[in-house]
Amino acid sequence: xxxxxxxxxxxxxxxxxxxxxxxxxxxxxxxxxxxxxxxxxxxxxxxxxxxxxxxxxxxxxxxxxxxxxxxxxxxxxxxxxxxxxxxxxxxxxxxxxxxxxxxxxxxxxxxxxxxxxxxxxxxxxxxxxxxxxxxxxxxxxxxxxxxxxxxxxxxxxxxxxxxxxxxxxxxxxxxxxxxxxxxxxxxxxxxxxxxxxxxxxxxxxxxxxxxx
Length: 212
Known about the structure:
Layout: E1 6-8, H1 9-16, H2 20-28, E2 35-36, E3 42-45, H3 46-73, H4 82-98, E4 102-104, H5 105-112, H6 116-125, E5 131-133, E6 136-140, H7 148-160, H8 166-174, H9 192-211
Antiparallel strand pairs: 1-3, 2-3, 4-6, 5-6
Keywords: DNA-binding
Protein name: Excisionase family DNA-binding protein
Organism: Paraburkholderia elongata
């Protein structure tokens, strides 16, 4: 790796329009290859950073399109243009944080009773997932709202939902469904018959997504 082709953490943050902390998390999670110098500083190949940025933009666009579809199906919003929708979506996401429906990593760890290291492990397994809001990662509060058997069931469903974009996973878990008796998946964790129906619904949702 030629030094002229490498970027510092700060330069990568500027390139990706994120915080330095976010870049370091990407490196720690293995999502962005990096080398560590003798002085402990991190460097990232420019091509790797640009490739990650391109894929991140594609994922963001896909997530916005999915969120638009879900919102329109629910009758929540009918955007006039893509830019119009993006502005509305940003405001909508910020309101979700303000209302406590999405938590910072620190708040989520406190509510679920796990350490930051355990949160990363749960994320790698697929038991929890986060979303990007205003260049920061937040976690759905519902993933820290149950315990015991319900939590074990929720973890299994979250792992099955891994192929879906994060926002669609959240919608799958929280939106009431006619096929679930006008309950959400989250409201179907306590009773065996309802949980089996919720598990079926999750499987169908994932299969439909893969087929599109």
